[in-house]
Amino acid sequence: MNSEQVNRVSVDRLVEDVLIIRLAGSWTTSDSPPDDREVTSAFVPGTVPRTVRFDTSRLSGWDSSLLTFLMEVSKQCSRLGISLETDGLPEGARRLLRLASAIPERQGTRKESRKEPLLMRIGERVLQFKASSAEILDFLGDASVAFARFVTGRANFRRTDLLQFLEESGSRAFGIVSLISVLVGLIFAFVGAVQLKTFGAQIYVADLVGIAMVRVMGAIMTGIIMAGRTGASYAAQLGTMQVNEEIDALRTLGVSPMEFLVLPRMLALIIMMPVLCVYADVMGILGGLIVGVTMLDLNPIVYLNETRSALTLTNIWIGLFHSAVFGVIVALSGCLRGIQCGRSASAVGQATTSAVVTGIVSIIVATAIITVVCNVLGI
Fold this sequence. Notes:
- This protein is of the alpha/beta class.
- About 70% of the residues lie in helices and about 10% in strands.
């Protein structure tokens, strides 16, 4: 019987067909799990008894841990057709066991993992893509109509909102744009210097950094920064309004959410993105200048003159066009995901993440398209 103190559970057979499970000690969740190998071996085919009884005379305390054990024994007895006698259990444990066994588990309440066929999954993805594409096209159409109404002076939005969004997407973004652009210029100059220095052509680092930043990299880095900063902010703002049913209230009042909410945000980024792009170009050239002066021992005036001779108005206009397109993309991505947001707090976070991902991917795709067009046009 010493094993009862160690394992807290033991098994005895009074006669061939009667099994007694003796429980001892404390059965609480704070104690270590009992060693129930003897009980498990008693239900092996060939040694299965007809009746199972309990002896709890040495049981000092119990809670849900005991009930969990009893439920498992009850399931085994039901599965094997064994009669379970609970007279030896504490009164409270008997009542709880009867209550747990009286109401069977409702079918369908337990989540079952069922792997769907491949063709079914493909079909669902196609239908989701079709519905999402239709929703995006509808949103772009409404945005185009709102912009046309703005051009004709009939758009309904507050000018103070436009000024606020200009400040949020403009002056407050100069710090992060400065840091990233200088570092990108440093990286371009360093990578170029390592290669050009072997040919004694260090001065052409100025051409490399200047053309790369002004033509495309300044706009791309600014667009990615604004997608993670401003696009996510727009999605969170509109998503919260969707949760609070403020957008539904605007529609009820006859106010177009596209004009009142989306249009000023889109205009703010269209205006400020070229400004931020020019500023990023200057900061990137400054980063290249730092590497040229400190690492390549170039004269600052010579470096700047080489940069000025390498740049053309075509490169500048292409970079500005990139930035304006990216401004529209970031604004529309943030507003689209915000308006598509569900009615829960977690949906706001998902909309914010989706806005950033959509904005960055769209920027890369738009860059590839513009680059191909420029190559076809020979500019």
